[in-house]
Structures are given as structure tokens and as C-alpha cells.
Design a protein that fits this description.
Radius of gyration: 25 Å
Shape: elongated
Number of domains: 2
Largest sheet: 3 strands, antiparallel
Helix content: 55-70%
Number of strands: 3
Order of helices and strands: HHHHEEEHHHHHHHHHHHHHHH
Strand order of the largest sheet: 1-2-3
Length: 519
């Protein structure tokens, strides 16, 4: 981080001088304060069942420009409260920026990041304001109503990662802020402790989970449980763990993510080639497919399509380009080894996708275990894992039934994703959390790992038409997953709206009637 960014971050986070910064009274009213742990405690609820802040803010974010107040005419508080001073504004904007930065770092979609920033600012009467997210940049602008110049601040996120425990903790903290009882300086202190307590799994568990993910993917794709299948399972586990160790060595040299993924993909491809040179009819292609499942960038793909559907085209395009570069690293690592093996007589038969009817009980168990390992790698909270497993079982069962009935695989995948998105949204509402922890890992069994391998192998064999067809099917499957999840989420919001709060606080009442946003 440059000197300019460091000084800006200090100014935005620390606020005005003083040991604790300004204390802006929250909008929850007397008696609303109720201490809750920012990591594991449940936030307090307003009387009558308060509307969750995403349901309040999303209509404001999606409102047209004609509904926004004109520049220089700020919104008045219905309770007649005085407009916050410059010091209070600086502290609140710094808090909103830090919330947005951490949410974006944890892998949240751009629209929900903006909703959280807007909710924090409006709770402390800093309005009208414009939050903005653009890939790795979060910014917020405040326009005072007394003719003063606008105040704008921004922060940057260098390497977003999937950290769903941290994301859930941030959602709980924003909920506690918006329901009242937390001053700005207290919120700053609580926010700084979020990431210190969000690592639920030690390093060895993560390494083992990555290997098991590849192993259960071989059972999912192969659909067998004989001795040869278990030998393939063990080979996939070991090679993926070795690939992770190679990737860690590459990362220590500060090389880009492209080279790390290329190194991680190589061991599975090498072992798959070696297993094809035998008389035991071992399926080396399944080992390679399992390794691909462990390396596919699932959460950036889902977040990218969700951003595009929500109208954040710049962020969506950047995230999709990032996904393409990550996939290119995996492709380079696998295709280099495949080219050598195929040209030396390796027998790498491939199938276009998981055989849904080959062994339904085994494949259902494999789909659930794959979701479990994927969720652990995304640092999902242990209390959320049962819901993820139920969602995964429902998604895979839907796909399997539709595929057995003769439905097109892409359509079956999309409909399964709609169910996963709908149930995930309902689970997230009940728990007061982000929807991503409930849906991303649950989609792991439906990722197009085998389709991607089929396309790569066709290219290596000199069959470009079949290769393009395979990669096209893999892309269409990935898009159907992301669109299906988003459709299920929007269906939940459309047909099951949140209950209105009773009584409404001044901040939330003004937000509903005179909300605005940059669009």
C-alpha cells in the first residue's frame, strides 16, 4: 500500500482526534442497546420484528435517478435531529468504508456491499450519500444540505478471498448497528476485532479438505465404489494435497495467482497419465477431473454473474476476466501434461458429465461431502454447515431426478440452482446473514469440472470442434448455475417480502420514503 493510501486509511478509520472518536447517538431509541458478540453472538431485534437492512436498502439502490433528491437538498430527519457535524460525518464515512472494504474482501457481491455501506451511513443520519463499488474499489460520497462541498472517501481491496465466517460476522455487526444501541466509536472497535476471531479451521484441516474435495469428486463423476474406484479416490486426494504444497511454494515467491494454479493442477494430471499406462483399467481421467473440481473458482464465478444481473457491469466484467485468468492457469497446467501423455499413448477416456443414475446413493453422499469440504475451504462457520449440507442434497437430488427424466443437463443444472438459491435465501433470512455461505458450497457438486476436462482433452487430441463444444457446455453450465441462484434469491425477495418493523425508527422510515442512490 502506498503512503497516500495508508494516510487516507488512517484518516478514514480513526476519525477526529480523541481516544474514542465521536459518539453519534444511534437511531434505535432508548433501551435498544443489547451487547452481542460480533463474531458468534446474535444481534438484538427491534420491537415487532425489524426489517433486515438488505430488504430496506436494496429498493433504494435500485431506484431510478428521478427518485433521488436534487443536489444541495439533503433529506431532513423526521425527528428534527440536527445535521451531523464534520467530525461525525468523517467517523461515519470511515466506518461505512471499512465495512464495505471487509465485505468485499470476504467475497460479497457488489450490491450487498453497497447496501451495507448505505445502511450504516443512514443509521447515523449521514444522508444523502452515494456508496459505490467497482471491483476492488469502495467509495462513498456525502452531500451536506447546507451548501457545503461534498465529502468523498475511498478504499481499495488488493486480494479478495472467500471468507464466509468473516462475512457472517460483518452481517451481524451491521444488523446490530442498524437496530440501534451501538455508537460509532464502539462500532469501530468491534469492527477491528471481527477478523481476529473468524478463523475456525487450522491449516491442516484446510489441506485435508482440499484433498478430500478432489477425492469425493472422483466418486461423484465415476459413480463406482469398487477397489479400483477407491484407489482412484486415494490418488486424487494425495495428488491434490501435493499440488497444494507446490502452489504454496510458488506463492511464497510472490508470483501471480496464474502460476500458483498452474502448479497446483500439474500433479493430478501427471498421476492421471501414469495410471492410464496399466492393465488394471484404472481411470486416470477421473483423477484429473477430481483435481479440476478442487481448483475451479466457484465463488468468484457466482459473485461475478450476480453483479452483472444487478447492473454492476464493470465489476462483473472484471470478476469474469479474473475467473478466465484463473481458469487459464489451470488449463495450462493440465494441458501441458495431457499433451505429453496423449502423444505417448495414454488412454484418457472422458465422459461429458457426471452420470446421475450410475449409483444414486453413492453420488448423493459424494455431493454432500463435496459441499462440506468446499464450505470448510471457504471458512464457513461450523453452525452453518448443516444448512449447507441440506441445501447441497436438495440441489443434487433435483439435478439427478431431472437428468434421469430426460431433461437437458444445462436446464437441469439451472433448475437445481434455482432451488438452491431460493432455499439459501430463506436460510439467510432466518439467520440474518449473507446468502453466499448457504449457496456457493452447495453448488460444488454441479460445477462443470468434467465438462472442462472433456473440452481440454478434445483440444489435445486435435479435435477443436469437440473441444469448443465441451468448453461451451462448461461455460453454459457455469452461467446457468449463477443465474439460477440469482433467480431463486430474487424469487424469495419478490414473493416473501420482509415484515415491516413496528414501530419504525426515524432512520428506517426516512429510508423507505425518500431513499436514493447513484443510479
Amino acid at each position: 500500500m502506498s503512503e497516500h493510501e495508508e494516510s487516507g486509511a488512517r484518516a478514514e478509520t480513526d476519525g477526529p482526534t480523541g481516544p474514542d472518536g465521536p459518539r453519534v447517538p444511534p437511531q434505535g431509541g432508548p433501551g435498544a442497546a443489547e451487547e452481542a458478540d460480533p463474531v458468534s453472538g446474535r444481534p438484538p431485534r427491534a420491537a415487532g420484528g425489524a426489517v433486515r437492512w438488505p430488504e430496506q436498502m436494496l429498493p433504494l439502490l435500485r431506484s431510478p435517478n428521478s427518485a433521488h433528491p436534487a443536489a444541495g437538498h439533503g433529506e431532513e430527519d423526521e425527528d428534527g435531529a440536527a445535521e451531523p457535524g464534520a467530525g461525525e460525518v468523517a467517523a461515519v464515512l470511515g466506518l461505512a468504508l471499512l465495512v464495505g472494504e471487509l465485505m468485499l474482501t470476504c467475497g460479497e457481491a457488489a450490491e450487498d456491499v453497497e447496501a451495507a455501506m448505505l445502511a450504516v451511513a443512514r443509521t447515523y443520519r449521514v444522508r444523502p450519500c452515494d456508496p459505490q463499488v467497482a471491483f476492488t474499489r469502495v467509495a462513498i460520497s456525502y452531500r451536506p444540505g447546507r451548501g457545503d462541498p461534498p465529502v468523498t472517501a475511498e478504499r481499495f481491496v488488493r486480494r479478495p478471498t472467500g471468507d464466509y465466517a468473516g462475512l457472517a460476522a460483518l452481517f451481524r455487526l451491521v444488523t446490530e448497528i442498524t437496530t440501534g444501541g451501538l455508537a460509532v466509536d464502539d462500532a469501530h472497535r468491534r469492527l477491528r476485532t471481527v477478523h481476529r476471531h473468524c478463523r475456525h479451521y487450522p491449516a491442516w484441516v484446510l489441506v485435508l479438505s482440499s484433498g478430500l474435495l478432489a477425492g469425493v469428486a472422483t466418486l461423484l463423476v465415476g459413480g463406482r465404489a469398487d477397489a479400483r474406484a477407491w484407489l482412484v479416490f486415494v490418488s486424487a486426494v494425495v495428488t491434490t494435497m501435493v499440488g497444494g504444497a507446490l502452489a504454496a511454494r510458488v506463492e511464497r515467491h510472490d508470483l501471480p495467482e496464474f502460476y500458483r494454479l498452474a502448479a497446483a493442477a500439474t500433479p493430478a494430471a501427471v498421476v492421471g497419465i501414469l495410471m492410464s499406462f496399466n492393465q488394471l483399467q484404472l481411470r486416470g481421467s477421473v483423477v484429473i477431473t477430481g483435481g479440476l473440481y478442487a481448483l475451479l473458482p466457484g465463488w468468484p464465478m457466482v459473485a461475478a454473474v450476480q453483479d452483472g444481473l444487478a447492473g454492476f457491469y464493470l465489476t462483473a466484467a472484471a470478476r469474469l476476466l479474473e475467473v478466465l485468468y484463473l481458469l487459464a492457469g489451470v488449463v495450462v497446467g493440465v494441458m501441458t501434461v495431457l499433451y505429453i501423455g496423449v502423444n505417448n499413448g495414454a488412454d484418457l477416456a472422458a465422459q461429458s458429465g457426471p452420470a446421475a443414475t450410475s449409483n444414486p446413493p453413492l453420488q448423493l453422499a459424494a455431493a454432500v461431502l463435496l459441499a462440506l469440504t468446499f464450505a470448510v475451504l471457504l471458512n464457513t462457520e461450523p453452525t452453518t454447515l448443516p444448512a449447507v449440507l441440506v441445501n447441497s442434497a436438495a440441489g443434487w437430488t433435483t439435478y439427478s431426478v431431472l437428468a434421469d427424466a430426460g431433461a437437458e443437463p444445462i436446464m437441469a443444472t439451472g433448475l437445481a440452482a434455482v432451488l438452491v438459491g431460493l432455499s439459501g435465501q430463506l436460510m439467510a433470512r432466518y439467520r440474518g446473514s449473507s446468502v453466499l455461505p448457504y449457496v456457493t458450497a452447495a453448488l460444488g457438486s454441479l460445477l462443470p469440472g468434467s465438462l472442462l476436462y472433456f473440452g481440454l482433452l478434445a483440444f489435445v487430441r486435435g479435435e477443436p470442434e469437440a473441444g469448443l463444444s465441451g468448453l461451451g457446455h462448461a461455460t453454459a453450465t457455469a452461467m446457468s448455475l449463477a443465474i439460477g441462484v440469482n433467480l431463486g434469491r430474487e424469487a424469495a425477495r419478490l414473493f416473501l417480502p420482509a415484515r415491516p418493523s413496528a414501530p419504525a425508527t426515524p432512520a428506517t422510515s426516512a429510508a423507505r420514503h425518500r431513499g436514493r442512490h447513484r443510479r
